[in-house]
Design a protein that fits this description.
The N terminus is likely disordered. The protein contains no helices and 34 strands. A hairpin with a 5-residue loop joins strand 30 and strand 31. 0% of the residues lie in helices and 50% in strands. Strands 1-23-22-21-20 form a five-stranded mixed beta sheet, with no helix packed on it. The relative contact order is 0.15. It is globular and about 55 Å long.
Amino acid sequence: MQEASAETTSKTETPAAAKAQTVVDPNDVLVLKGHQSEVFSCSWNPVEPLLLASGSGDATARLWRVPEGNEAVPPPVILSHLPNVNESKDVTTLDWNPSGTLLATGSYDGQARIWTLKGELRFIMAQHRGPIFSLKWNKKGDLILSGSADNSTCVWNTETGEMKQQFNCHSLAILDVDWMDNVTFASCSSDRNIYVCRVGATEPLRKWAGHDDEVNAVRWDPTGQYLASCSDDMTTKIWSMASDQPVQEIRGHQLQIYTLQWAPKTDNGPRILATASFDATVRLWDALSGECLHVLRNHTEAVYSISFSPDARLLATGSFDELLNVWNTKDGALQETFKANGGIFEVHFNKNGDKLAACTSHKQVRVAHLS
């Protein structure tokens, strides 16, 4: 594929004063209370559509069984991360194993932990010497990958809790990690570099050094063929293992790009990528051509999280302006909007695509049932 750069504006750019078709009725939103501090992360179970995990600055993660209707929410299972090895007790990241039977959590104290659905602590994985910012199970479920502010990534055996390998390629904090397959992964860092490593190999398979500022997030596309990266340099780059150079460089955002997500693969159409920026917009791209399909404008502050519905029809966006927006990915129209109580750190669709969770700076998790 030819190297290219795209500075495009959508032909169908969503107007800045987008009017939602539906303002979500507050009565249709369930408020999950109990955390004593900001809730940084939330993740639906990949198998059970009503089981939700949340992680907070109060040194706990919680497992919530969300009722289908208007019944009362049963008390959550509380996963206590105390005692800590230091005063840093934020639960920064969490990820379910593919079968939905175990939850991994990463903490600011540098420890990763694996929990059962009953809240039993199976393993404490203590090798990192700094906060864990990203944590991912592989698809097989036999390895966990963690990336830390100590500049290293670790791969853990989930059967024993023992570290299998530590990688020290980066010179500054690791900001994100993502598996390409069951043994190959990418990591990105404040050092502006991306490395692709393989479990068992001592040297990286690839070093990609195209960004001019720290790289905030990396994601492999659903086929594992392309890696997308986004940076404080306001660009998104698309990489292939066949090249040292990006196969596409995407420009359009006016400020740092905080996160990105590939649309789930639903047909043989273009590979759709969503990017979220501190410029308060989210953009949808044809990743390989670099064409901007839609600019989604209804936020007034930085957008920290985005989530595609499983059928790729909808995109949820959450911002520190306290708005949770749901967009139609085909035409870029704003379909539903809801004002949360507090800035939104993370949003996530459940496996059925009918429930949307948002966790906030005001110690809450909010669950909206989508019509």
